[in-house]
Amino acid sequence: MKKILIVDDEPLMRKIYTNLIDWESHGFTLAGEARDGAEALDIVKNEQIDIVITDLKMPVMDGLTFIGYAKKEKPNIKFVIMSGFDEFHLVNKAYKLGVCDYLLKLELSAETVLATLMKLTGEIEDEKLRKQIESDKDKKLEEMERTLSINRLALREKLLKELFWGGNTKDAGEKMREQGILIDEKNISVMVIKLEEYYTVEKELYNGDRELFKFAVVNVIEEVINSFESICQLHNPPHEYVIVFSSNTAEDCPRKASDIFMILKRSIENCFGIRINGGISQVADGYHSCKELYEQAHSACDYGFIKGKGRLISHREILYTPTTPEIDFRGKVKLLKEILKSMDNARILNAIPELRIEPSCAAFQDIGEVKNLFYIYYYTILEYAKLHDLDAQIAEQLNKYENNIQDFGDLAELNLWINSIMLALADVIKSGRMMNRAKSFIQNNYEKHILLSDVAEHLQISQRHLTRLFTEETGMNFTAYLLKVRMDAAISLMKDTDLKVYEIADKVGYANVEQFSRMFKKTMGMSPKEYLIGQK
Questions:
Q1: Cα 279 vs. chain centroid, distance in angstroms?
Q2: Residue 233, SS3?
Q3: What is the DSSP letter of 53?
Q4: Where would you tag: which of 64, 105, 474, 529 has the fewest CB atoms within 10 A of its CB?
């Protein structure tokens, strides 16, 4: 159904158009009517209109002005104008604005209107078909270009992978030249970069299409490295990219590597919001050295876990790392279990420094064990929290490890995480003990006239803090909790004793029996006397 809008300041003309044709039987529907151009423009802005039939002379906003504004808002709308014999000068102006046809008011008939609308419908469908064909062509061309680029990339990556991981250097120079890889055999260096939060971005920006995401990242890297001489890259799934280059002299390599990394870091962060970590090998001659250089660069990139993310780390930093004392990984796990078992918030707080692993104490060979230690920390705390129904209260810290730090965190972030989750646990345990004391105080004193300030003074905490504890622990404020305790006690006395209502009121903290009765009815839906009758 094509949607039609009628615009005319004369009610009679609008009514004539409405009744002139059986719109729906001919594939049309009247989307609305407007009395002037301003009213019509609002409809055009807010609704999907295909064809507009409009008068030219109208108050508030005339037809020509309306058409000009409407064309800017919805350029695909078809316009038909209604005119008199004395308005041809306006018709010419209307055609310049892109009007498709005009109808003479004095010669108006169902046949002429229908013929005009059918012609415009055909034009609309032809335009849609043409746009679809053009769109399909563009998509096919884009897909072909992408396929060719991917195939070229695949051939180049196959050659480089044989070189880096297989150590196959036979005819390497000739094969590389065939693929357009112009890297001299002298002064070769290899750089490895890794993308943080790769899977998150792949899912959010590319709907999990790994090939498309890879293609996008490779294009960004290619754009950067094309400004340098003697350089190429390959992709090592899923989130590692390898760059190999040669320099005029061995001394030029560190500077060139630094320049490449800084530009890549800025470009990838701008395009995808992803940080990168990098490692650079030493310098060597000959394609046969590529395998060893890759291993050096890969190790240097991994060393960023200890040295900190977002940096380009040289393999030399691993070679000249000072000797560190051996870390007692088993002892740290044992300590965590002991302090959790104690449920002593003071012990938990005091143990935090011992649970951390300081970067100055960790060597490259410790990386695997350090990651595993924090993995054990996570599951130990998770099991403890579930056992004591605390997992909801520390969910944010638990999720932070599982969603972010586990895969992409460095040692500094892991230390911050263990610090924050242990602080949260200590606070939860302290709050739990505090609430037990608060509840005990209320249970022992509910028959007295006690206030929030009395409980806070007993616990030596602020009333504001106590209010927060009540809300988090019980889901109700202090007043509601005290009322519940008193009503529970009153019901117990009604069931187990022969005390009068006024006596029960006194025993549960109400000097005024009327107030007790009112609160009882509000809570139970009946008066104390009605409740007692029901118990007999």
A1: 29
A2: strand
A3: E
A4: 529
Give domain limits for the chain: 2-108, 153-319, 329-432, 433-535
User: CATH number of the domain at 433-535, please?
Assistant: 1.10.10.60
Tokens in use for 467? 């209010």
- Per CATH, 2-108 and 433-535 having the same topology is answered no
* Span 153-319 CATH architecture: 2-Layer Sandwich (3.30)
Q: Is the pTM of this model over 0.70?
A: no
- Tens-digit pLDDT profile for the chain (536 aa)? 888 999 998 888 888 888 888 888 888 888 888 989 899 999 988 888 999 988 888 888 888 888 888 888 888 888 988 876 556 667 767 777 778 777 777 677 888 888 888 888 888 888 887 887 777 776 776 676 665 555 666 667 777 777 777 666 677 777 777 767 778 888 999 999 998 877 777 777 777 677 777 778 888 888 898 888 888 877 777 788 899 899 989 999 999 999 999 999 999 999 888 889 999 999 999 888 888 899 999 999 999 999 988 899 999 988 887 777 889 999 999 999 999 888 788 888 899 999 999 888 888 888 989 999 999 999 999 998 888 777 777 888 888 887 767 667 889 999 999 999 999 888 877 777 777 778 888 888 888 888 889 888 887 777 887 888 788 778 888 888 888 989 898 888 888 888 888 888 888 888 888 998 888 888 888 888 888 777 65
Report the sign of the C-alpha dihedral through residues 502, 503, 508, 511, in that order: positive
Rounded Cα distance between 279 and 298, Å, is 6
Side chain identity, residue 298 = H
